[in-house]
Amino acid sequence: MSSSGSIKRAQDDEPNSKRPCDEIEDRLSSLPNELKTDIVSRLPIRQALKTSILSRGWKHTFSSLPRLAFFEHQFLSVPNSSRRLVELIDWTLANRDESELCTLAINFNIFEKPCLTLKSTWINFAVEHNVQYLHIIAQIEETGLPSSLFTCRTLTVFKFMARAQLLKLPSVIYLPNLKQMSLVNICFPNDILTEMLFAGCPLLLLLCIGKCGLDRLSRLTIPCPKLKILWISNCSGMDTCVINLQGTCLENIYYDGPLARNFEFGTVNRLSGVGFNITREPDDWRNDNELAEVAWNLLRDLIHVRELTLNVLFIKVLWEVRGELWQLRSFRNLTNVRLCVWPSVENEEIVMSLLGKFCHVQQLMVIIHRPIGFGHVLRMEMHPEKYNLDGVLKHLEHLEIDYFGGFELEMGFLKFFLGNAKSLTRVILRTPGMIVNSYGDDRFHHDDLNQETADELMRLSAAYPTVSMTVFDVNHTYN
Questions:
Q1: Which residues pair with 135 in a beta bridge?
Q2: Residue 370 CB: number of other CB atoms within 10 A?
Q3: What's the rounded Cα separation, in Å, for the pair 407 and 343?
Q4: What is the crossing angle of helices 81-94 and 120-128, to 10°?
Q5: d(Cα 161, Cα 105) in Å, to the nearest integer?
Q6: Residue of 19, 17, 20, 66 whose CA lies nearest to 39
Q7: With contact defined as beta carbons under 8 Å apart, do 378 and 412 qualify?
Q8: How far is CA 432 from CA 40, 241, 312, 348, 446, in A?
Q9: How many Å apart are CA 156 and CA 133, to the nearest integer?
Q10: Cβ neighbours of residue 83 under 8 Å, at least 6 residues apart?
Q11: Distance from the CA of 18 to the CA of which of 52, 171, 191, 210 falls in 20 to 30 A?
């Protein structure tokens, strides 16, 4: 019995015998390198680092990851988190092999004081390893971003958010493969260097500029020949800056903030979608007439668009030039319109005048902005012969009204199009309470439709059987 036990122990001690853990290790190590890399790339950086101790075959997987992402919020539970995060970035890059780094993302909490500072050495490393996607949210050094970044030939996507710092630009900028760029919370230096930045991106397709400082600029020139989509949102200094667009391929513009001093579209001739959500700052030095002139000139330059969104203030300032609206050429390509309006006779006149020029519109959304405390709604009287609405009444197929409360203005608007729009097949009404529940917007009344209004809508639906009418209320959906 003892001899058999000795034999078994001897067999266990044979060099070729394998323990279960060895078999598991061999199976892990035998996975294809591409699969191991894909697995580790999907993990947060701290967990990804731990995979290097799984087995011998995994030791070098971490050092060749094509995507590296360092997020400060993932280290909040770590003692001395800020120091440890910086050390981890340094160690990871120092121990990386020579393989290409496709993506580098660094996200620091820039709203904390003090906050971590981005090291130029990290950006230089990414450029040297042919980075393609660079996403940075961080405070930058006083010297600015390294000059190597602005001549990176492999970079295709650059997203950068700073701490309201000046973007210091080198004298040479050339990003031949950059297709998307997002700049948030930075300050542009001057007209010339800013124009050089965008001119150095010949293949740029998408540009987002948000919460940036334009105070040092008198003219923001964007000479990107391939640019298709442009976002400009909530930038300071917009009221004193001329925005000059020279890209011949520009298709969509979304603008949010105070109206610029002027807009120059140059050779832009492919615009299809445009949205203007203009605001007015308390220190805006321009009077209503000057704002109306800018808005009027904009409309004249946008007659070829297919989709158009205008907010409350844009429509309001047009009141100053209401006598000139008849001079507008017809928007013959326009098929989709979204208008935000205050419930007033003045805005009704502007809206109807505009619809008279939108002669081929098929989809119309009207958003009624009724702030808290707004009790009396002026009666709206429709005079179609005054506005020459034959075009829109012939082609309109889809009508939506948001913040519909059943007041005389909204009911009059609805009844007018139900009775006169020859091609109308679909009507959607959303009550204020329904929208508040969906989007958390508490600026407007939360009331629901009363029973009298609901009954009136049911009668209208029965009177126009060819039109599919849906009313989204907090408690009911009427069809």
A1: 105, 159
A2: 21
A3: 10
A4: 30
A5: 12
A6: 66
A7: no
A8: 47, 37, 17, 20, 6
A9: 6
A10: none
A11: 52
pLDDT tens figures, 85-97: 898 899 889 888 8
Omega cis (within 30) before 114: yes
Residue 388 backbone class (left: φ over 0; alpha: ψ -120 to 50; beta: rest): left
In 3-state terms, what secondary structure has residue 399? strand
Q: Which three-class secondary structure state does DSSP give residue 232? A: strand
Residue 326's closest CA among 286, 355, 295, 298?
A: 355
Up-side HSE of residue 403: CA atoms within 13 Å toward CB? 21
Cα separation values, 356 from 136, 289, 331, 343, 350, Å: 47, 23, 10, 19, 10
Other residues' Cβ atoms within 10 Å of the Cβ of residue 88: 16
The rounded distance, in Å, linking the Cα atoms of 438 and 234 is: 24
How far is 41 from 35, CA to CA, in rounded Å? 10
Of 163, 223, 213, 235, give the one whose Cα is nearest residue 192. Answer: 223
- d(CA 139, CA 112) in angstroms, rounded, equals 10
CB–CB of 209/186 below 8 Å?
Answer: no
pLDDT, tens digit, for every residue of 30-67? 666 666 666 666 666 666 666 665 555 566 666 778 88
Residue 299, judged by CB atoms within 10 A of its CB (0-12, 13-18, 19+), counts as buried
Q: Which residues, given as ranges, of the chain have pLDDT below 50?
A: 1-15, 17-18, 21-22, 24, 372-380, 435-447
- Are the C-beta atoms of 167 and 144 separated by less than 8 Å? yes
C-alpha distances (whole Å) from 53 to each of 56, 57, 77, 84 are: 7, 9, 22, 20
Query: Distance (Å, rounded) from C-alpha 313 to C-alpha 48?
Result: 50
pTM attached to this predicted model: 0.83
Please state whether beta strands 363-368 and 262-264 pair in parallel, antiparallel, or not at all (unpaired): unpaired
Task: Show Cβ contacts of residue 219 under 8 Å, excluding neighbours closer than 6 positions.
Answer: 191, 241, 242, 243, 244
Closest CA to 334 of 296, 311, 307: 307
Single out the residue of 194, 119, 98, 203 nearest to residue 154, CA to CA: 203
Question: Is the sign of the CA dihedral 85, 146, 157, 181 positive or negative?
Answer: positive
